[in-house]
Amino acid sequence: MEYMEGMEIIDSNMMGQVIDAMNSYDYDRYTENDVRSALARETLTPEDFAALLSPAALPFLEDMAQRAQIETRKHFGNSIAMFTPLYIANYCENYCIYCGFNCYNKIRRAKLSSEEIESEMQTISETGLQEILILTGESRKMSDVDYIADACRIAKKYFKVVGVEVYPMNSDEYAKLHQNGADFVTVFQETYNSDKYETLHLEGHKRIFPYRFYAQERALKGGMRGVGFAALLGLDDFRKDAFATGMHAYLLQKKYPHAEIAFSCPRLRPIINNDKINPKDVHEPQLLQVICAYRIFMPFASITISTRECERFRNNVIKIAATKISAGVDVGIGGHSDGEKKGDEQFEISDPRNVDEVFKAIEEQGLQPVMSDYIYV
Hints:
Number of helices: 14
Oligomer: single chain
Radius of gyration: 19 Å
Shape: globular
Helix content: 25-40%
Strand content: 15-25%
Largest sheet: 8 strands, parallel, barrel
């Protein structure tokens, strides 16, 4: 997993701290008293966070949900931010065995032109959304930095908030995206177990575990105001992965107090040509446990609930801990402006509702849909 040519190396020991904490995390040693103690604290320590992720906390899921709801309303009020992802290319140079975009999967590959990107974004903006997340497959050859920067420039014409979820970059490349309109960067570490990581990522730049780990820090060095974290729950021991994700975000927040922190909580979903891909032992109660633990541990963090989850679960979790929800989602390439996808999907979604349907569902929960909560002055 040595760095490849051109990969920026930054001076940081954070990866060692996170991996050491994860490796020493024995969730079976936590007791009912540890969970009660954690829930009684106003501000949680990493040890309290570990207790809330343990099996001992599952019987306290209702208590965790109530505490999470209190923290959410205290820091976010009744607002639920809305956004949609736009996949602009699905070419990929990595061989990740669980991903529909992997370079050996026989799918329709496509890349939107600048004109097609603008058409897609204009159509999406007409739904009322003011936040967009730009995604690509991980191919520097087919989706180079200039191509993604141009998509950010176009997006800024139509949206107030622009996020990117693309391959990890160097800090100067993130700076270029930021100068062209990008506000935040999301990177899924997938799993923090480096040994398991190596068995899941067989070819490509993504094999370099530490380069991916430090992507958020490089993004902040490049001027981004916010960064998102996630493990793909179900690839490995989800409790350890969730703990490592939380510790990663926690330590980065301490190092960069100005940074806006966000969590996503994705579970494995079936992919084209492989319907056997499914989460291991991560059922809805466990997923809710993870989400509530994130909220109680880092109450200021945004938490996104994606269309990987069903309508029922998404409607419920925005009442408790999630603060951002996607709507009108299509994980194929194109399909918004003319209804015809040019490339195949990364995974199967569970909630196909459009923007109006999600908007109304939020209101029906007594919450306030928010299209943008950020203004540049």
